[in-house]
Amino acid sequence: MQNPFESGHIKNYILLYVSVVVIMILFFIASTLFNEVPSVEKKVFDMSEVPDAKKQMENIVEINSSAVRLLPKAY
């Protein structure tokens, strides 16, 4: 096998590498130019429609407050 530095083929390897990088950059630029990002409206939820939401959340916190959870069935 010949040494590419001595035979002058290194210039071809560098040209190939540079051309691949340039093609990647061109694809990146093209994808950012033609990519239209739609604007998303922020959704606001009205909590007045659920009157028992606070009570339900308090019940869930009370149920999950124990540090050790036992299995419902012993194996």
Describe what is shown at a glance.
With 75 residues, the protein is mainly alpha-helical. The chain has 3 helices and no strands.
Structure description:
The protein has three helices and no strands. It is mainly α and 75 residues long. It is elongated.
Give the integer mean of the pLDDT values: 78
- The structural class is mainly alpha
How much helical structure, as a percent, in the residues?
Answer: 40-55%
The parts where pLDDT drops under 50 for at least 5 residues are none
What would you call the quaternary organization? Answer: single chain
Q: N-to-C SSE series?
A: HHH
Ends distance: 67 Å
The fraction of residues assigned to DSSP E strands is under 5%
Overall morphology: elongated
Number of DSSP helices?
3
Entry keywords:
75 residues, mainly alpha
Secondary structure elements and pairings:
Blueprint: H1 4-7, H2 10-34, H3 53-63
